[in-house]
Amino acid sequence: MLLRLRTALLAVFSALVTVLALAVGVPQAQAASALPCDVYATAGTPCVAAHSLARALYASYGGPFYQVRRASDSATSDVGPLATGGYADAAAQDSFCAGTTCVITKIYDQSTRHNDLTVEGAGGAGAADVGAPADALPVTAGGHQVYGLEISAGMGYRDNSTSGVAVGGAAEGMYMVTSGTHVNGSCCFDYGNAETNNKDTGNGHMDAINFGTECWFSPCYGQGPWVQADLENGLFQSDSGYSKNTANTGTGALPFVTALLKNNGQNHFALKYGNAQSGSLTTTYSGGEPTVNGGGYSPMHQEGAIVLGTGGDNSNGSIGSFFEGVMTSGIPTDAADDAVQSNIVSVGYGGATGTTGTLTPASEISLRATTACCSTDYVRHQNNAAAISPITAASSALDRNDATWIVRRGLAGGSCVSFESRNYPGDFLRHYNFALLRQPMDGTAQFRADATFCPTAGRSGTGTSFASYNYPTRYLRHYDLGVYIASDGGSNAWDSATSWADDVSWAVSAPWAP
């Protein structure tokens, strides 16, 4: 009895601290127990949906985050937090999926509404989707190894029978944490309110955040990606559709982005974005509902389904990353948005893993050439291709990041390794036509094999050599500044026997990026 009373008093105290923080504009991250949905609830706009693979979005939540299904026997398992209000137990997923592969079959709603997302069925513009690979997007959050959701074309999640989600012109807000490095210009990487029948039922029947490089209404400024509102039959940056904000050139290649939309359902919507690793939110538009396409957006006509990764009619050609997101009843205050952004930043998405310079999974490394000609050159990615180039302490931050890799358990075999890009979460070093590229993991067996390398003693007698998992007589080699998998002699130029043993021997070193 005393324990329950003490717990209740602490909860009341936490809520009072949250109210005070919002009232005086103090960043909500200062109240350690207040997570995003706690902040929104205290501000009078409670979450009606809260989805995350990475962490709890309520301080009191201890239930499952997501469900995985393994290929070997179709068994399923839920992945939840290490502790109430904490981060995902990714090791439980790794154990359950060991020796096989898993896909994500359900993303649980942490709110009391139970608006769980499952793999989306066929719609007006796309065939039935498939689940995303469970291990495609490893990332650090709160100092823990967790997984995000990496969407490739043909993947998506949905709930057409929801509770509490805005319908028929009601007000709502929403945000998601996504990535600016895994995007394209296809329709439509959305999170938010959609039709209940997987079809386009008209203007204003959607109210969802869109993130990508698709410019629906010209002009758009810069190269994107942009945070836009998918209100059906258009991706909107303003009431006129096109951007009226010349400063909104997109988020660029930020690895983690907070994207936010709020809409009163009648005559006003607003768009914001921020760097999910640091800083505050920027408002790119705040004004009237769209007046184009013959109208129909004022008032809105939301139907209340929830979609993730596709458009309302299951247009599923997009790619994107999802780490967390919520939807609220009513429009959150700007102070609440700012407090949530502060909390997101405090998570430290993409932070250092804490281990460096070894081939242990989760260690951050750089790979240095040992050939006499090139002993200050490191493997780095540039324009999606792998190359070697000199990297020093005086190199730019971008170059040092490009030359840093996170060691992951081999995507095709646990006794080998895969290399994830430090600044492009979910992108791995893989070979294609023998050349090494940086590409997003799509979950296919081919990609897994191409992105897996088996360490052996350096063939020159020094360092480490890496045999290709699916071409075991070929090793990771630098040749003419490029990087390939190469055999010791052969028809390709990069198979030259000259200095082969030296060129395939690498020094595993401390990472250039922190």
UniProtKB/TrEMBL annotation:
Identify the residues that the record assigns to the Alpha-L-arabinofuranosidase B arabinose-binding domain, covering every copy: 367-508
Any one Pfam family here would be ArabFuran-catal
Keyword vocabulary terms for this entry: Glycoprotein, Glycosidase, Hydrolase, Signal
Under CDD domains, the record lists: beta-trefoil_ABD_ABFB (cd23399)
Keyword check for Glycoprotein, yes or no. Answer: yes
- Claim: Glycoprotein is one of the keywords in the record: yes
InterPro entries per record: A-L-arabinofuranosidase_B_cat, ABFB, AbfB_ABD, AbfB_ABD_sf, ConA-like_dom_sf
Q: Which domain of life is it from?
A: Bacteria
Domain Alpha-L-arabinofuranosidase B catalytic residue range list: 36-349
Signal peptide limits: 1-23
Query: What's the family?
Result: Belongs to the glycosyl hydrolase 54 family.
Can you name this protein? Alpha-L-arabinofuranosidase B
